[in-house]
Amino acid sequence: MPRKIVKKIKKAVTKKSKSEMKVKELEPVMLQPPRGMKDILPGEQPYWEQVRRVTERLARDYGFSRIDTPVVEFNNLFNRSIGEGTDIIEKEMYSFATKGGDKVALRPEMTAGTCRAYIQHGLHLLPKPVKLFSTGPVYRYDRPQEGRYREFYQVNYDAFGEQDPVLDAQMIQVAYRVVQNLGIKSIQIQVNSIGCPTCRKEYKDLLVNYLESKKNKLCQDCKRRLETNPLRVLDCKEDKCSQVAAAAPQSVDHLCDDCRNHFKNLLEYLDELDLPYAINPQLVRGLDYYTKTVFEIWSGEEGGRKFSLGGGGRYDGLVKMLGGENTPAIGFGLGVERLILEMKRVQAKPYRAPKPRIFLAQLGDLAKKKSLKLFSELEKNGILVAESFGRGSLKAQLRVADKLGVELTLILGQKEALDRTVIIKNMASGVQEIVSVDKLVDVVKKKLKTDNVVTYHDNGNHNNHSENK
Ligand code: AMP
Fold it and tell me: How far is CA 216 from the centre of its chain?
């Protein structure tokens, strides 16, 4: 090899090894998610499953269709709808620019995305009211504490195209039913009306005048809110602000005729439904888009600490403001983690998954192969089966079957595999019988009394379902 080339190769090699040496030591992977976010482990899932079942079932019963929108939307969808002066937009939104330069954000709530989809896909052409249900994670960069996370889940119900307060009452009823069906009994509904843009303007002026006169008694945040979002001063949690809020003019005393009648009718409907509500003049909700009705669902013992499980209200101007037709609408969101915390606090039952009542045991290579198929045959027929295919010894498998408390064990050995038969062992009596594989499904169903057979295809109506009616 010419000396020149050898020199070149040597140079390249030393260059490479030098650069390799420069590679920094890799940072260890953090074995935890970012602050305020968490895993939902298998042990927690029965609570989540119960919430899924109850919320989806009520959505179906009250005529809501499911909609799923992206977790990421353009920034200005949220800025415009939720409002620039709100805590969510000012402090809590996860906003970022994509590699392509789009300004986007992780949704801090679900209504804005649902409205965007409603307009974009012409859903106003559907019969009114258009009722939509969605569920999924939302993100708020807030200080985490018990019941407050940076990633949390909401279930959201929205109805478009109806301004009659009968719909407000029905939405409140749905929220109440969700919480009640989850087994949470001490529920209180807080309602208020914050009027329409016309009467609210007058009320806002009055409120600002009052708050200005008490400015030195407000917290720093509220002094700022006085300029940006004075209504929010009313639901500040600071003691000194609550005292100022308690004596503030109330929006319900300054509603225009239309808003007053709307609110009066709503209360009559709530009375008719026998719902436990209280008018809360301090309830304003933190988002700019609300008009007329606002409400929250609280839980907690009489006189004890109260938890807000969810809330919502009317947003008659939002669809138009985002570029759609003039569309009255109302919606609410419930926080899943909060619902689950409350379920645990009051010891409400989580979902109990159906348990297999049959175990399939096998012995020998051929039997193992046949068992795999047999398992799937039983599954196709809606029969839930437990197995331990990885174990060779029959004794070990029967021990597992015993532990699971199954009623029947199906045993497949070399002989049975060749004869196309299966031994059915009654675990309580120990009695065994042999049946042909072709008749197995029928025989098993009969033994377990067909209507009691636990199936995968039960649409949540199985008698193991612990939903409260
Ligand atoms: P909001 O619209 O802010 O009232 O939120 C509706 C519901 O979502 C609340 O009543 C809570 O149940 C839940 N929620 C709001 N913020 C959080 C959070 N940071 N972590 C967990 N749940 C939350």
Answer: 41
